[in-house]
């Protein structure tokens, strides 16, 4: 908040939804922020990913309750998360891809939820069972930089790429 402020000097508008003393996990954090997000579908991007994905290609009005960007499985997550078939995401066991941490959601996905900490994945899996999660397979650059080692790998990649 100190570094970005309200975003005006960058041509953006930033509002914050603080989690407080207890970590709310992804689902609980989004649920807490819903009053700030309005009624239209909204984009969520995990803070610990780097990508060259072109966000303007995301659907502004996803079919169903969510649209997920899936990527090839990185070495540290070889089993993947979800299956993508004909633009629909499911929780089947064959040829899984990894959820990139990039998704467009409708607030209705969170209708059954209550305040507090909870993960996003179970909500997504329930919506998948009803055929309400679309998706796409992004084959460009994407990295999970959730560890110091992977952050160093990204730094080296970017230095090499821009050299």
- For the record, the CATH class is Alpha Beta
End-to-end distance? 32 Å
Number of helices: 3
Range of helix content: 10-25%
Strand order of the largest sheet: 1-6-3-7
Brief summary:
With 163 residues, this protein is an alpha+beta fold. It has helices at 25-37, 121-129, 148-162; strands at 42-45, 49-51, 66-71, 83-85, 88-90, 98-105, 133-138, 142-144.
Question: Keyphrases for this structure?
Answer:
two-stranded antiparallel sheet, alpha+beta, Spore Coat Polysaccharide Biosynthesis Protein SpsA, Chain A, 8 strands, 23% helix
List the helices and strands and how they pair.
Elements (H helix, E strand, L loop, with lengths): L24 H13 L4 E4 L3 E3 L14 E6 L11 E3 L2 E3 L7 E8 L15 H9 L3 E6 L3 E3 L3 H15 L1
Parallel strand pairs: 3-7
Antiparallel strand pairs: 1-6, 2-8, 3-6, 4-5
